[in-house]
Write a structure and sequence with these properties.
Number of helices of chain A: 4
Number of helices of chain B: 9
Order of helices and strands of chain B: HEEHHEHHHHHH
Strand order of the largest sheet of chain A: 3-2-1-24
Shape of chain A: globular
Largest sheet of chain B: 3 strands, mixed
CATH topology of chain A: Neuraminidase
Structural class of chain A: mainly beta
Mean pLDDT of chain A: 85
Strand order of the largest sheet of chain B: 2-1-3
Structural class of chain B: mainly alpha
Strand content of chain A: 35-45%
Domain F-box (chain A): 1-48
Order of helices and strands of chain A: HHHHEEEEEEEEEEEEEEEEEEEEEEEE
Low-confidence stretches of chain A: none
Strand content of chain B: 5-15%
Number of strands of chain A: 24
CATH architecture of the largest domain in chain B: 2-Layer Sandwich
Pfam families (chain A): F-box, FBA_1
Largest sheet of chain A: 4 strands, antiparallel
CATH architecture of chain A: 6 Propeller
Number of domains of chain A: 1
Protein name (chain A): F-box domain-containing protein
Largest interface: A-B, 33 and 38 residues
Oligomer: heterodimer
Low-confidence stretches of chain B: 1-13
Organism (chain A): Actinidia rufa
CATH class of chain A: Mainly Beta
CATH superfamily of the largest domain in chain B: Potassium Channel Kv1.1, Chain A
Number of domains of chain B: 2
Mean pLDDT of chain B: 89
Subunit structure (chain B): Part of a SCF (SKP1-cullin-F-box) protein ligase complex.
Distance between the termini of chain B: 74 Å
Chain lengths: 376, 166
Amino acid sequence: MADANLLPEEIILEILKRLPAKSLLRFRCVCKSWSSLITSPNFIISCINRNNTSQNNTYILLRIYSETHKKEIYTLHCDNPTIDLHTHLDFPFTSFNPYFRIVGSCNGLICLADTLYTHKNDIVLWNPSIRKFLSLPEPSIRYDKAWVFMSVLGFGFDSRKNDYKVVRIAGDGSKIVPPRVEVYELGSGAWRVIDAVVPPYEMHHCWLQTNLNGIVHWLAFNPCQMGGFQSLIVAFDASDEVFREIMLPPSLGSENLLNLSLTVYGDSLALCHYSQGTQHRRACSIWVMKEYGVATWFEIFTIDLQQGVGLALRFLKNGEVVLATGEGELVSYNPNERQVKSLGIFGSSHPLILHTGSFYVDTYVESLVLLDSLRL
Amino acid sequence: MASAPENEKNASAPEKKTLTLKSMINNEEFVVDEHVALQSVTIKNMVDSDCAGDVIPVPTISGEILALVIEYCKNHANPSASEDDLKKADAGIVAKDIYTLIDLVLAANFLDIKGLLEVTSQKIADSIKDLPHQDVREIFGVENDYTPEEEAAVRAEHDWAFEGFP
């Protein structure tokens, strides 16, 4: 009945941008014009915009280290209270360390690094939805002598240029020579040293970054402060390529960084503060910066569990928190009912790994990023 | 106080204008309240620019499809319908075979009804996502312009995505 051959391209586009990545890869074979549409940068970004705004297309990315299999396992879960398993992701890498450090993830692209305890600089961008990855070239700033050199990584998105950027802060660890900064741009495929001035604070290479709206955030402290800590957040805006400082709530400004972590609450940056709760277990208070850049923080609730709180990892859409308990189990916590739900997932008990260290939980959208850039 | 009687007057004697939409495929006519029909940006532009006569001819859309479009517009013009009601009603409208859906998406595009375009596109996407690409080609009436070698090369780039497919 339908003379469908007459479907205008704008309708084809409306339909295609609603398809899962796997279907789109197959439908490249329909005809040449479908293939060039699907692999075009404009189409790829319009799918991302749609998935980010549509309620049903966000997933939870989970990484655990399996003691039995001696390897890291990546899975996608539904963003529902029981975080039901959606897909097992095929992980194509092997690492020097027991598992990769996840620098960050953005629009379906995951940045992995295996730079700890090794002079290799293995940094990979991985898109599991289309099973493509890209190994980054060797960074240009090098300190060949030292074991003590510091190298901090961040992964952000330049929304103006529509490009993904890995930022690397590298210093010789001497505190005499200020560290230098370089940026890898997916679009150009190369590292570029930039002039940005790094705030004079220490960001430990192991501490996780948190990505919000493409901006990278690290917890940091001022090493020159005498008598206690001076802690704060250092942010790197991937569009402007400048660093900014964000103050913590005044009551937490001198807190030890081991008692702090960052995450995202809705569209806001959230700070998790760990302190001793009842029954001598670690409790966690959640603070939210409601208006970005205006460092006014609001404490929204405290999680005080019998099992203790190891690490608050990620908020679900319904407001529940996925967290690792003090016993290394992954649970979801409902702050209104103060109820804990076991997710039946346990962290590693590897001696080199903190209970909570191998967990990574982030929101995730499918995307076709890397499908076009691989044809360079 | 002065505005109260005015409101009452409006409520008791609402101006109920109607429009007649006529399918040019099978000459079927539909009499529709104006505010229902105005959800179509195309019709609204015609009415606004005084191009609309008593009967608005709708080319290339059959009566069967036009009836679905009008059902959609009626549902969405009802101010007391909840979001849940609308979702259910939308699902009913697009519970059709793929060829009807393609006609419907073309109609939604021609009449410029954004919500209907989105809900129909989503349903088409859901219906084709697990189909082999050969079937999709046929449904959309697309001519295969690949040589067998070219097609095999594109396929080989993502072999894993074709597991279980011809």
